[in-house]
């Protein structure tokens, strides 16, 4: 009988605000003239960027699994948070268990060794958390251990060095105290966005591993609150809801994908994050969901062009909570959740398994933002009204880091009035 081992993947508050005027179009998400605040660490950048295609493959494969689990519902999660937590777990995994984890994260172990993968994640965390960025993105990894469980010094040392892991001793025999310790820590680290994360803990728990991201980004130009008005949002053929709809006219990065029948608008945050807002034509969401891959994003990036638009975008807050064990098992990460698990690199004995893997995420979108200096310039408009794009039916929202091309968050907003 394996000892229970809870993994809790947490994503705290994404605060997003809407935007009008954009900087020049970036090919592949990068502006060649834009300073790369820590790209001068060439080795670090190379190790990190080698992960990007694999992490993107994992992100969109996981997206497809989530859709199967929760069809026709709001979805929001952080692929980079999930990848990071399980890459960290792979440090303590051995044999088939380790292979399944890394291959389940979309790595080809004949092309990239485990050591190289771990070094890449270490550099990714450093680059995403860099203080020079105007985007607030804090990645935190923590482990809560029972006093009886003595982790190997090598595992703790490696996890601290690579993943900035924080370790805490926890009395799981007293579930109420353990819950309070963990919940207080999570609430503090997520700036109050996630509260009461764990409850009804099993006293048999010996370890809880947490990986979470706190993200806060401001658009380069905010919507004006006085332009927000209540309008209809068409959830499906039978359901219409009223939402506060923000509005702004300006020049936006725009593309219409004829193959997938969807409109793409790209908005940049101050700093290195960028968002793709994707509005499928009526009846085309399922086609988009089933075919979305990293190459699709690349094609959109390559074909975006500036267009004067009248943009309507809903103000909303949603959160997602997922028990992801089943989804990851379908992606090949199987043994770690069974008595076949080999996590002997954590304690020296093969008597641990992961009993539960949870991911939590939240997204807030409203009018607030920081005006860019360029926003004071007069916008010259033609006298004719620009075409209107209104996000008034289910859409996707994807958030990337431009410096690393990492997929930070993937969201599907089906009903913006439902918060969880």
TrEMBL record:
Q: Which SMART domains match?
A: SERPIN
In its keyword annotation, does this UniProt entry include Signal? yes
Output the Gene Ontology terms for molecular function. serine-type endopeptidase inhibitor activity
Name the family the entry cites. Answer: Belongs to the serpin family.
Stretches assigned to the Serpin domain: 60-416
Protein known as: Serpin domain-containing protein
Q: What keywords would UniProt list here?
A: Glycoprotein, Protease inhibitor, Serine protease inhibitor, Signal
One Pfam family matching this protein: Serpin
């Amino acid at each position: 009988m394996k000892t229970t081992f809870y993994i809790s993947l947490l994503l705290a508050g994404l605060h997003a605000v809407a935007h009008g005027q954009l900087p020049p179009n970036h090919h592949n998400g990068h502006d060649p003239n834009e300073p790369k605040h820590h790209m001068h660490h060439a080795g670090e950048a190379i190790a990190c960027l080698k992960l990007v295609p694999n992490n993107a493959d994992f992100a969109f494969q996981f997206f497809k699994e989530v859709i199967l689990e929760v069809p026709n519902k709001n979805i929001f999660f952080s692929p980079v948070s999930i990848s990071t937590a399980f890459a960290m777990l792979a440090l303590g995994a051995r044999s088939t268990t380790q292979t399944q984890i890394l291959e389940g994260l979309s790595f080809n172990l004949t092309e990239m060794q485990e050591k190289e993968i771990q070094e890449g994640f270490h550099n990714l965390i450093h680059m995403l958390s860099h203080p020079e960025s105007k985007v607030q993105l804090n990645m935190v990894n923590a482990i809560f251990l029972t006093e009886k469980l003595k982790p190997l010094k090598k595992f703790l040392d490696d996890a601290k060095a690579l993943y900035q892991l924080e370790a805490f001793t926890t009395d799981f025999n007293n579930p109420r105290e353990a819950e309070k310790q963990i919940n207080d820590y999570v609430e503090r680290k997520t700036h109050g966005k996630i509260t009461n994360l764990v409850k009804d803990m099993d006293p048999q728990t010996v370890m809880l591993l947490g990986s979470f991201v706190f993200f806060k980004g401001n658009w380069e130009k905010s919507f004006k609150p006085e332009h927000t008005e209540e309008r209809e949002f068409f959830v499906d053929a039978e359901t219409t809801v009223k939402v506060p709809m923000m509005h702004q006219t300006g020049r936006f990065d725009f593309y219409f994908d004829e193959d997938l029948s969807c409109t793409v608008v790209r908005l940049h945050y101050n700093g290195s994050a960028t968002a793709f807002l994707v509005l499928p034509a009526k009846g085309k969401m399922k086609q988009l969901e089933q075919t979305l891959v990293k190459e699709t994003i690349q094609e959109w990036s390559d074909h975006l062009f500036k267009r004067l638009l009248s943009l309507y975008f809903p103000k909303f807050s949603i959160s997602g909570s997922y028990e992801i064990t089943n989804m990851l098992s379908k992606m090949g990460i199987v043994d770690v959740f069974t008595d076949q698990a080999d996590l002997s690199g954590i304690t020296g004995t093969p008597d641990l398994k992961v009993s539960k893997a949870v991911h939590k995420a939240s997204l807030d979108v409203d009018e607030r933002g920081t005006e860019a200096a360029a926003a004071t310039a007069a916008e010259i408009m033609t006298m004719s009204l620009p075409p209107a794009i209104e996000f008034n039916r289910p859409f996707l929202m994807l958030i990337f880091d431009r410096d690393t091309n990492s997929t930070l968050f993937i969201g599907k907003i089906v009903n913006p009035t439902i918060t969880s």
